[in-house]
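Researcher: Let's do a round of design. I'm pasting the structure tokens now; please hold your answer until I've finished.
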């Protein structure tokens, strides 16, 4: 049965593969044909009517809501009702799935072969899967996985087919010729990426999704983050689909809806280099059959293990209790359009953030993620020229392993040789030579001309951003104590109230980078204090947070973990303040910032490559819009923005104390030196004036 989020017991400190079942182990002992053609006997939602795909589409087109919207559009546009209904039918045909068991079996056969080639193991927590199987029979179920790879789209259906659980219909944002047709027959329904203000399209989509939910036709799967994360870091949730699936409950059309967060963790992501290139502005290759053939080389690579953690089913009824004014929904007939109230939007926003945080807490941290955290805090010249000594990396990784366990993370640490094997797995990023670790520096043997310095920076940035993405898989564990460590460093204060104020400021600035549940700042601060005290970094009294000598190493690590974000934001604040114009376009902003960052990296004044990432740059714009330092010009078609330089400068000044890399003693010396020079010149001027006067 679905349970309230507050009733969920905290996960064990360390999960090993003993808690999970490797579903590929049995698949390797059986034939692929035998697997695909076995009896498939799922137990559906007990209240679901028997509907074919055509029955579902007919129910959508004949619904009172869609008929009302069709008549309304016909009146607004002067078109006939029949013409608008034909348009709605065409939209539905383009959108709807065509789930067929035969194609599910074909996909099962294909995926069985592919997954056995790509992965050593696919681990699934059977307890979560059993709870899902039970929940599907009791209420409409919404499956909400995180989204890190195109494999996410396939793996959930593969697992559910394997264990006789109804295969989901899946909201997808792409449609690839031929392959798109196969996926449609495997349960995918397609949503345009840009819907805009197309009233009819929105109405068809809304009714299609809600008919699936109301009838319990099948489990519905969608990504609350909206898009695949190119940084392997959780994205701020998009609320459109979440609002759609919950509305039947808000309107009283279903008794309850069960939400199932799913955490998918990869040792190595198939698209790792493509993701880094996209972040650097290289266009994503179009999905096509040719592209799939070109990608066939991935079958020769080792991608380690995958963990799929089905979270405990969450009851929308219990989660929303006390947060919704039901009388608002009783005033308007259910079949009429209804704009959600501010109260409802706040509830949906809170719930979406809760789901993403639950996904984060359910993910497994790999040893490589810990090693990536440490490698990115190593001087760049060490990784490219001298090499980092292997024993230093392993000792520090074991130290970090203890820290993440203290912080309550789920850790995948299968054996004592895991550090050696994980470095070998990530040979595209680092290589182990003569007991030292080096970053891979790709060279093109076919190239005749030497690389320009700027090209060299971009080529190295690909490898660094790949490393960054794996660090990001562990960031959620460190963010809250990391923000507190940063607040301690910046404010040089021990008072809890002062630290809490700055903690909230940093949460606000970085709320597009990290996931913070709305209204939980106090709990986040208390959690950060508790974790730092638990690992011996600080002592917490009623009024103060006192740094301990034994905690300096932990605080330094956490502070350096957030340094690239602070560096990146400060650089972009500087760019906006120094820019002559007050109006700029996103099309100008991204390459201009990238060019400025490249120059600073070459001069040695900037040490982070993350500022080159388009996702980081867009997050800064979003943060400044939220802080009202930048406003988007609504009438513009080119994503134009107007900057309030004074507001940007104020935000940058608060962070500036931390960003400046010059030690305090040197800054003090330079300040004194400036004063001495000033008074010396003043004295000389006075002396010259006297001489001239006397002469």
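Researcher: That's everything. Go ahead.
Model: Designed sequence:
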């Amino acid at each position: 049965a679905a349970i309230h989020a507050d009733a969920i017991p905290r996960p064990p400190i360390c999960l090993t593969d003993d808690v999970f079942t490797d579903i590929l182990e049995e698949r390797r002992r059986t034939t692929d044909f035998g697997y695909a053609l076995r009896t498939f006997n799922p137990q559906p939602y007990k209240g679901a009517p028997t509907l074919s795909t055509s029955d579902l589409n007919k129910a959508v087109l004949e619904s009172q809501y869609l008929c009302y919207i069709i008549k309304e559009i016909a009146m607004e546009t002067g078109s006939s009702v029949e013409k608008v209904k034909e348009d709605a039918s065409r939209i539905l045909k383009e959108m709807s799935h065509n789930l067929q068991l035969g194609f599910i079996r074909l996909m099962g056969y294909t995926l069985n072969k592919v997954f056995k080639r790509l992965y050593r193991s696919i681990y699934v927590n059977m307890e979560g899967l059993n709870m899902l199987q039970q929940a599907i029979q009791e209420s409409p179920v919404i499956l909400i996985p995180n989204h890190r790879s195109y494999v996410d789209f396939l793996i959930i259906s593969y697992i559910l087919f394997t264990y006789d659980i109804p295969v989901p219909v899946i909201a997808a944002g792409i449609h690839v010729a031929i392959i798109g047709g196969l996926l449609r027959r495997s349960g995918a329904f397609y949503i345009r990426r840009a819907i805009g203000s197309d009233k009819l399209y929105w109405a068809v989509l809304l009714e299609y999704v809600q008919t699936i939910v109301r009838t319990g036709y099948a489990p519905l799967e969608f990504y609350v983050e909206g898009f695949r994360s190119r940084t392997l870091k959780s994205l701020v949730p998009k609320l459109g689909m979440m609002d759609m699936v919950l509305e039947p409950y808000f309107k009283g059309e279903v008794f309850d809806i069960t939400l199932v967060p799913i955490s998918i963790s990869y040792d190595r992501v198939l698209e790792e280099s493509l993701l880094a290139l996209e972040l650097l502005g290289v266009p994503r290759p179009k999905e096509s059959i040719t592209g799939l053939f070109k990608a066939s080389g991935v079958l020769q690579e080792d991608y380690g293990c995958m963990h799929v953690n089905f979270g405990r089913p969450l009851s929308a009824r219990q989660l929303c209790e006390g947060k919704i004014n039901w009388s608002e929904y009783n005033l308007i007939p259910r079949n009429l359009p209804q704009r959600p109230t501010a109260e409802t939007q706040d509830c949906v926003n809170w719930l979406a953030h809760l789901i993403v945080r639950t996904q984060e807490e359910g993910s497994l941290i790999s040893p490589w993620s810990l090693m990536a955290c440490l490698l990115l805090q190593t001087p760049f010249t060490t990784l490219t020229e001298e090499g980092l000594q292997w024993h230093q990396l392993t000792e520090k990784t074991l130290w970090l392993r203890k820290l993440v366990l203290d912080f309550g993370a789920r850790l995948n640490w299968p054996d004592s040789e895991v550090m050696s094997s994980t470095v070998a797995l990530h040979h595209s990023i680092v290589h182990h030579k003569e007991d030292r670790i080096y970053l891979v520096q790709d060279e093109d043997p076919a190239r005749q001309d030497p690389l320009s310095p700027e090209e060299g920076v971009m080529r190295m940035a690909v490898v660094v951003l790949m490393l960054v993405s794996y660090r990001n898989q562990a960031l959620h564990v460190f963010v809250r104590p990391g923000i507190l460590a940063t607040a301690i460093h910046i404010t040089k204060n021990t008072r809890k109230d002062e630290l809490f104020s700055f903690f909230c400021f940093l949460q606000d600035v970085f709320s597009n980078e990290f996931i913070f549940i709305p209204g939980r700042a106090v709990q986040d601060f208390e959690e950060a204090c508790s974790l730092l005290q638990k690992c011996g970094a600080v002592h917490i009294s009623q009024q103060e947070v006192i740094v301990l000598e034994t905690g300096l190493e932990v605080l330094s690590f956490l502070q350096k973990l957030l340094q690239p974000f602070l560096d990146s934001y400060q650089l972009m604040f500087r760019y906006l303040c120094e820019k002559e114009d007050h109006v700029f376009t996103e099309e100008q902003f991204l390459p201009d910032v990238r060019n400025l960052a490249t120059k600073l990296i070459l001069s040695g004044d900037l040490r982070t490559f993350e500022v080159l990432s388009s996702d980081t740059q867009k997050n800064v714009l979003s943060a400044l819009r939220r802080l009202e330092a930048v406003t988007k010009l609504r009438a513009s078609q080119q994503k134009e923005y107007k900057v309030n330089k004074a507001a940007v400068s104020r935000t940058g000044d608060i962070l500036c104390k931390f960003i400046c890399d010059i030690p305090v003693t040197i800054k003090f010396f330079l300040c004194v030196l400036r004063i001495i020079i000033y008074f010396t010149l003043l004295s000389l001027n006075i002396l010259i004036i006297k001489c001239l006067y006397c002469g």
